[in-house]
Amino acid sequence: MPFTFVPSQEIVEYAQLKAQISEDECMEMLVKQISFYFSRQNLVKDTFMLSKMTTNMQLPTDVVFNFHKIQAITNDFDLFITALKKSGLFVTEDRVLVSPKVEHSKKDVVLMKQLPSSSTETDVLALFDETKPELAQIDPTTWTATFPTEKQASMFVQKNQELVVGDKAVSVTIKPALPMKTFLDAARADGLEVADFDVSKAMPVWFYRQRGPRGDKSKNTKKGGKPRGDKARKGGKVVKDAQFPALGSVSNGAVLCSGYTA
């Protein structure tokens, strides 16, 4: 027995609104929302986004794409990627990761490994000439030396490529500050409210590289290409708020922008 579909007034109004929104307007809404997420004021205190980022401040595009406010605007992944780029963000070629523009990390920190475990701060300072850097001990055999300038750090590394202390060869390399640490430290220095986030717990740079390229399948699509949604009830019953052609699957959240070619 055929059933009768009766869309609610809310759906009808939503469909009419959607029909009036152009692709340019959709893009403007996406860019505005994305720009807020990645704004300095929001990002420094957004512990969820920070926890999903790598130490280089790269975030999976899927994470942002699945934010509720993004899904309320579009479930078109291609349109979303275009919006990321128009927001001034860096998107990897495979579309797996996105990152904000951050200040270049200074290369003024020297990492010295395999020093004798008995070394004291006085012993390590004796390795330097006139310029005495700020020292920090990472573990019994590893120290860092922070120089006033990148040039001084670079010169020390060049002069000590074959450094030997006691009977041990010491590894001497430049240790750039982590982009995320630089970003958060600069925000604190500027008086911004910054989340109490341990940068050492950020995702390693390689973590998300195990993911394959992101396709353009919608979150609201099952395998086989069929959209998710409530199954229409049969038996002559009236069906309200089920799958409505103009909106896609209303039961999983209607979207304003879909079906464009990004």
Automatic annotation (TrEMBL):
Keywords in alphabetical order: RNA-binding
Give one GO biological process term: positive regulation of translation
Which InterPro entries does the entry link to? La_dom_prot, La_HTH, WH-like_DNA-bd_sf, WH_DNA-bd_sf
Q: Where is this region: Disordered?
A: 210-238
Q: Which superkingdom?
A: Eukaryota
A GO molecular-function annotation? mRNA 3'-UTR binding
Show where the HTH La-type RNA-binding domain sits: 20-117
Q: What cellular component GO annotations does this protein have?
A: cytoplasmic stress granule; cytosol
State if RNA-binding is listed as a keyword. yes
What is this protein's name?
La domain
In which organism is this protein found? Carpediemonas membranifera
